[in-house]
Amino acid sequence: MNKRSKKMAENRAKLISAAKKAFAEKGFAASSMDELTASAGLTRGALYHNFGDKRGLLAAVVDQLDSEMALKAREVGVKYDDPWQGLLAEGTAYIEMALDPVIQRIVLLDGPAFLGDPSQWPSQSSCLAATKSKVEKLICEGILKPVDAEAAARLLCGAALNAALWVAASAAPEDVLPRSIEAFRALAAGFLNPS
């Protein structure tokens, strides 16, 4: 990596870090670009150059956080010897992260409000691909019914995402969490092969 590329990467990281802090504390709409760039020791020009605008910066922060959520969920899932239980644990872990105030505000509230449908985010696409691969394996092993793997993966990912969105948006997230996990697991169990 040449010196210029390294500097650009450093500036991107500084802006993402400053934005994450500002968006978590004040929310996206109330965060000032001038305050945000000043806290990173950079100018508005650096923000525009790296992200296009404030919305582009939000997209980068959401992508980073949502990717971290998926990674943490996978880390939970691999602890299980049973691949089906591992997949359920991943979905459950993703839903549980909706209680984290930073994730709640940035990824699950401001993200959809300002970036649109979360199922279309790049981080969700990679999550879908990983889930589809696991579903295909579970179908081949006879653990799941022989359904369309992409459809099943989309429904499982969508259920976990929508449960997390519900938890984050509710007036009492701690009360909604167990209900959403119970329903997610019941829905997912419908894919199990009874034979």
Report on the structure:
The protein has helices at residues 3-26, 33-39, 44-51, 54-77, 83-96, 101-115, 122-140, 149-169, 173-189. Helix content is 76%, strand content 0%. It has 9 helices and no strands. With 195 residues, it is mainly alpha-helical. The mean pLDDT is 94.
What's the helix and strand layout?
Layout: H1 3-26, H2 33-39, H3 44-51, H4 54-77, H5 83-96, H6 101-115, H7 122-140, H8 149-169, H9 173-189
Task: Provide a short characterization of the protein structure.
The chain is mainly α and 195 residues long. The chain contains 9 helices and no strands.
Beta-strand portion reads under 5%
The overall pLDDT, averaged over residues, is 94
Q: What is the terminal-to-terminal distance?
A: 55 Å
Report the C-alpha radius of gyration, rounded: 19 Å
Categorize the overall geometry: elongated
Instruction: Give the fraction of residues assigned to helices.
Output: over 70%
The count of strands amounts to 0
Return the string of H and E elements.
Answer: HHHHHHHHH
Number of helices: 9
Question: Major sheet, described briefly?
Answer: none
Task: Give the class from helix and strand content and strand pairing.
Answer: mainly alpha
Low-confidence stretches: none
Search tags:
single chain, mainly alpha, 195 residues
